[in-house]
Amino acid sequence: MTLRLYDLCGADPKLRFSPYCWRVKLALRHKGISVETVPTPFTAVPEIGGGGFPTVPVLELEDGKTRIVESFAIAEYLEETFPDRPALFSPGPAGRASARFMDGFANMTFAALAFPLIAKDIHAHLTEADQVYFRQSREKRLGKTLEEAAAGRENKLGEFRKTLAPVRHVLRSSPYLGGESPLYVDFILAGALTWATTISDYPILGDEAEISDWLKRVTQGETALA
User: Fold this and answer.
1) What is the largest CA-CA distance in the chain?
2) Which CATH architecture has domain 4-81?
3) Where in the chain is the domain with CATH 3.40.30.10?
4) Is the pTM of this model over 0.85?
5) Which residues, including other chains, have CB under 8 Å from residue 192's CB and lie 6 or more apart?
6) Which residue intervals of 58-183 are DSSP H helices?
7) Which tens digits make up the pLDDT trace of 150-169?
8) pLDDT tens column, 28-81
9) Name one GO cellular component term (predicted).
10) N or C: which end of the chain has fewer CB within 10 A?
11) 200 close to 19: Cβ distance less than 8 angstroms
């Protein structure tokens, strides 16, 4: 058996948009590890492996029984299991610490600001059953309707793009956030940006040439990962 990755999808099974799944797919490609992706709608996640997994990605190992959940845990598994392949973290504790920092930034800053702006667009791409689940769970989280969250979003781009200033700063002196070659710190943010630009037409990046060019370098050939 090969590795299997349960990968969040929309009503179109080819539409894969989870930022966390994208991180893992980029990490697998970086390591040169083949994987079978399994398109998984929101409402099918509880059925993975007979139940017990609240979210994706879930990586199922070759034995068909062992499963690893949570993107950072999967990245650490890949690094420890395939040390002879290209590294995901720079050497020493600082490498994983910097990736943890980016993980926090992507989740607590980037996604926290971006999600209300594109949640309505995510909803539009889901199956009917997923739409019901998504609206109920996300409106509870937001404390407002998806439509209310998106209201006036065209006026919020400036504030959102300010959060990417540290990324621009690094990319002015380095081709990747990880240095001369991409590392998991790159894949974390690339996953978040791919999520936002795949599921929504909202111009998250606009004319951000430095970040757009970096994203293309990191995700080059990403269509083969679906």
Assistant:
1) 51
2) 3-Layer(aba) Sandwich (3.40)
3) 4-81
4) yes
5) 19, 106, 110, 111, 114
6) 71-81, 93-104, 111-124, 128-142, 146-150, 157-162, 165-171
7) 999 989 888 888 999 999 99
8) 999 999 999 999 999 999 999 998 899 999 999 999 999 999 999 999 999 999
9) cytoplasm
10) N
11) no
